[in-house]
Amino acid sequence: MSACAGESAPPENQDTPSSTVATAENDSGLSGKKVYELMCSMCHGENGDGKGIVVLKTKARSFIDGGYSFGNTPEAVYKTISNGIGGTEMPAFKDSLTEQERRAVTEYVLAFNPENSKQRTGDPIMRVADTPLIARGHLPSVSEIAPEHPRGLIVGTTDGLSWEYRADDLRLLAVRKGDFVERADWGGRGGTPLKPLGEIIWLNQNGDPPPPWKLITKEGEVELIAKLAGTTVLDGRAVVRAQLEDANSQLLGYVDMWGSSIIEGGEIVPIRNFRLIGFTVDAKMQYEDKQIDFFPGYPIEFSK
Ligand code: HEC
Which residues lie with the beta carbon below 6 Å from any ligand 1 atom? Predict the structure, then answer.
């Protein structure tokens, strides 16, 4: 997961909005399978396992595992294929493939993971079935005083909750219950506004929380920035990873975050889970009001 392009989100796609539903076999242009065999398999492997014949600086991921850094929705994958990923060998196919061919190969790639293929292109409502979904795009504000977030991230978990993050400095803003997300402009231009459909059941400090991570050293407290490093769906968990940096952009370590829930008195209660990894500094950490002790070099998990 850390092998991905990190911060650099794929640039906006310039296509005109369209609700064309791509099928595996188009009568015009190449089928998803043909496109894949001709233009993708050398890097991503014939069966999508990431073991292509081309030797890459950044190892291409296995599509079978279904973990995508830029979201596992058809729209997100379509954008990645159209625009490529800056800083990696993943090329942009906007000019070399027609829109239909790109949609067809999107379906083909997603189908490597049987869980993903349930979500179809063209449907404006994204539904969470038995695997979590991750969507990126422009988020409306979650409360009267909270700002909008041009760079947002929503994770839908299979318990019917949606976890809404700002993605510029990764912070959980709210948790919703109910339907997941409506995409306002499927495959369209602009920041892909996302419309969360659930009802807010938990709001993080009015929906505009201050930076939650601090490093406590002998000299004092250092506020940390959480830069989105990637997302992945693994063992049914949708994990969002951030790299924690100080103001001088020095990388201190990583935090993986994922949401879960318990039922308490008939109500669903969201739980935030964290795993801190890769920290070598000998200091304490603080998350919101919680002090975290750890041995440098060892991962630590906690829930809140
Ligand atoms: C020259 C090698 C190369 C070719 C050709 C190539 N890719 Fe990629 N691709 C990469 C690399 C490297 C990455 C970045 C690492 C990763 O995430 O797998 C990537 C990433 C991706 C991702 C993003 C995965 C994520 O994390 O969100 C998708 C989707 C993708 N490629 C699809 C395709 C498709 C479809 C084609 C053919 C039309 C294709 N690639 C052709 C090398 C290539």
Answer: 3-4, 35, 39-40, 42-44, 54, 56, 58, 60-61, 68-70, 77, 80-81, 85, 88-91, 93, 105, 109
